[in-house]
Amino acid sequence: MSGYQVATQLLRLVRRAWDEANRCALFFATFHATHSGERGPIPPTNKSTNTDYLYAVKVNQDDLMESMTKVWNAPWAHRKLGWM
Residue 15: inside a domain, yes or no? Predict the structure, then answer.
């Protein structure tokens, strides 16, 4: 959401899990936001979204992050905010 001003935003961690065999941490969260700020792709819509997403973080044997993948349906969230 870089470059966009969203007046109200909250990230709420819902669940987390660790897969030892694959050395992968999973973080499931919900992004809550309302587009009421002046900066953005269009003027403020005052519409809101509650969007679920997941981060999968792989770590190596030294417990250092080697990759991170975000799974998020951005077009759906953009439609809910009135951007599409």
Answer: yes
82 part of a folded domain: no
The pair of structure tokens assigned to 68 is: 């991170």
- Cβ distance 45 to 81 under 8 Å? yes
Give per-residue pLDDT as tens, 33-61: 888 877 777 888 999 999 999 999 999 99
State pTM to two decimals: 0.73
The CATH number covering residue 45 comes to 3.10.450.50
Residues facing 65 on adjacent strands: 59
For residues 77 and 65, the answer to whether their CB atoms sit within 8 Å is no
**What secondary structure letter does DSSP report for 82?**
T
Note whether residue 2 is domain-resident. Answer: no
